[in-house]
Amino acid sequence: xxxxxxxxxxxxxxxxxxxxxxxxxxxxxxxxxxxxxxxxxxxxxxxxxxxxxxxxxxxxxxxxxxxxxxxxxxxxxxxxxxxxxxxxxxxxxxxxxxxxxxxxxxxxxxxxxxxxxxxxxxxxxxxxxxxxxxxxxxxxxxxxxxxxxxxxxxxxxxxxxxxxxxxxxxxxxxxxxxxxxxxxxxxxxxxxxxxxxxxxxxxxxxxxxxxxxxxxxxxxxxxxxxxxxxxxxxxxxxxxxxxxxxxxxx
Length: 250
Prior knowledge:
- The structure is a single chain.
- Strand 2 (23-30) and strand 3 (33-40) form a beta hairpin.
- The protein starts with 5 loop residues before the first strand and ends with a helix.
- The protein has six helices and three strands.
- By secondary structure, the protein is mainly alpha-helical.
C-alpha cells in the first residue's frame, strides 16, 4: 500500500499440481486504473483469467473493484473442485488401511499429500492477506460500497484454506491409523511367536533332560525309549495347544 497506488506480486499455484513450477503475476492499482503484469506464465492461465474477468460484468457496469475481484476470483475459481477430488483420494487411502490394501509406497504417497497441502495452505494465506489489505483501503483507492467484493474474495479464500487445513488433519489421522495398523500387526506377530515358544518350551526341557549322560538315566536302555519320548512330546504339544485355545490365547 502506497500513498496513491497499490502494488503486489502473486505466486499462482496450480492446485491440482502444487509442487510444479508456479506462475507469477504482478498487480498495479491506481484510481480507476488496473495493470496486470504477466511475469511468468507457463500455461497462459493469466491471460485466460484476465479475459474471464473482463467478460464477467457488462462493460457499462464494470468498476475497478469488480474487475480486481473478478480477476482474483478467476485464479482460484476451480480450486474447490480440485480440493474435492483430493479429499476423495485421501479418503480412498484411508479405506485402503482398514481393508489391508496398503502398498509399499504408502508413506511416500502420504508425504506427497502432506507437502501438497502445505503448499496450498501458504498459497491461500497469501490471498487472504491480499484480500484484507484491499478491504483496509488505507489510501482510499476504492469506493467504500464496493469493498464488499474484496470481503467476498477474502472469505472464499479463507474457506479454501480451512478445507486445506481439514485435509491436512485427515492426512495426520491417516498416518496415525497406519501406524496403529503396523503396531497391531507387530503385536500379532509377537503373539504368534510367543505362543509357538510357549508350546515348544516344554519340549526343550524334555530334550534337555534326556540329553544328560547319566548311567542310571531312566529308559536309557529301553528299546521303546525313543518312541516313548516322541509320544510324550506330541502329547505335551497337543495339551499346550488345547489349553491355549481354551484360554483364547491363540
